[in-house]
Amino acid sequence: MMFMSCTGKFRDKDDEIIYPILTRILECKLITHEGCTNQILHPCIPTCFDEQQIVCAFLRTYSSLLWNYRAGFAYSIEELNGNAPLAQSDAAFPPDQQQSDDPTKQPRFFSKERFLKGCDRDTRLTSLYQDYLSQFVNSQMFTQFITDRLTRSPREYEVLFFDELIKLKLNRSKLKLLKEDTPFLD
């Protein structure tokens, strides 16, 4: 039985020093002891793992899923037609940060039924996608996302960034003739 001592040398059971055979992985210049190579799962993580590409993939996915999340917003309880709101905001954000001076123009409620109905209008949706989306709207992540949108100013950077990503996605559509500006992303 061998173990690595604090000095980095292997010792056997009789406490004699054994000089290890080192293995070098050329792609990422990793050097390891031969006995340790079977414990390394992904040796070249910095080489094969691009965090920025993963972040971009998640943003593209969620902007595709949530492109019409504002369809679920309601400005009064009467607009919900008896449906219970998924989230609601009593005082969304300070009046100096509101988009307009009229507080009734700020969404105060979110109805998942209205959101899903807006998604159903897209004829390209498969039943599998619709099933996924109906489960997704019941998740804590979605509820937190909507609550953030109801309680934060539309001018906050995170809200602006995501909304303009959605506009950018919609602008790429060949069916959309009128393209919207995305000054925050420019």
TrEMBL record:
InterPro entries found in the cross-reference section: dDENN_dom
Q: Where is the dDENN domain?
A: 110-164
Its source organism is Umbelopsis vinacea
Highest taxon of the lineage: Eukaryota
Q: What is this protein called?
A: dDENN domain-containing protein
